[in-house]
Design goal:
Order of helices and strands: HEEEEEEEEEEE
Helix content: under 10%
Strand order of the largest sheet: 1-2-3-4-5-6-7-8-9-10-11
Oligomer: single chain
CATH architecture: Beta Barrel
Mean pLDDT: 89
Largest sheet: 11 strands, mixed, barrel
Structural class: mainly beta
Number of helices: 1
Number of domains: 1
Low-confidence stretches: 1-23
Length: 222
């Protein structure tokens, strides 16, 4: 198990080296994740992400995502079928003009969780079918690996500060397979069993550039 934990950390540190980024700028993402427990097996996931090119007010992307999940085992293995709507406002060749792009997305994902001592580990495998402006169809695979480490308590319980680290790699079905990689470091606070907050920094590595993001995240379970 210790060998496996070391491998997870190594993967987090190695993935970003695969990109050859050149330019970087700072944006801000405001994120809400909600999860409704329907019963012991079923859950309803929903989220809103408001992404800005700057601190706030210059919209990059509005993302709305929802899905129905099923627990294969209690709290550790979850299958989910979901839908997402993504509205993007993309700048044209670094000019002041933008173009609007709308995307409809169906996705399937599997989440598995485990603990090694104080470290909480989550793996997420996601497969996406993407319809962009109702004309361009694409497929994409994503692998997400996260570590949450409590600071002031031996476990992440009520009133606990914790460190959050994750890495997510995106792979296309096109000639250029690598899409992007996201590396994130954050500080979180679990207020109670239903609410968590995180403040973090994310660097998004693309094929020709990278983006720096400040993330403000709220998690609500009800």
């Amino acid at each position: 198990m210790k060998k496996y934990s070391a491998t997870c950390v190594l993967l987090i540190l190695i993935f970003p080296t695969y990109s050859y980024s050149q330019n970087s700028d700072l944006g801000n993402w405001l994120i809400y994740f909600g999860n409704k427990k329907i019963d012991s097996k079923w859950n309803w996931h929903h989220e809103v992400q408001y992404r800005n090119y700057n601190a706030i007010g210059d919209l990059e992307q509005l993302l709305l995502r929802t899905g129905i999940g099923y627990n294969l085992t209690e709290n550790n293995n979850n299958l989910l079928l979901g839908y997402g709507f993504i509205h993007s406002q993309n700048y044209i060749d670094n000019a002041e003009d933008k173009i609007n792009v709308d995307e409809h997305r169906i996705f399937q994902q599997f989440i598995t969780r485990q603990s090694i001592d104080r470290v909480k580990i989550q793996h997420r495998y996601r497969f996406e079918q993407r319809w962009i402006d109702d004309a361009d169809f694409r497929l994409r695979f994503r692998y997400f690996l996260s570590l949450n480490i409590p600071v002031n308590n031996p476990d992440i319980v009520d009133k606990t500060w914790y460190v959050s680290i994750y890495n997510e790699i995106f792979l296309n079905d096109e000639q250029i397979i690598f899409d992007r990689n996201r590396l994130y470091f954050g500080l979180g606070y679990k207020l109670n069993n239903n609410t968590k907050f995180e403040f973090g920094y994310m660097n998004q590595f693309l094929n020709t550039r990278n983006r720096d993001q400040i993330n403000l995240i709220t998690f609500i379970n009800f």
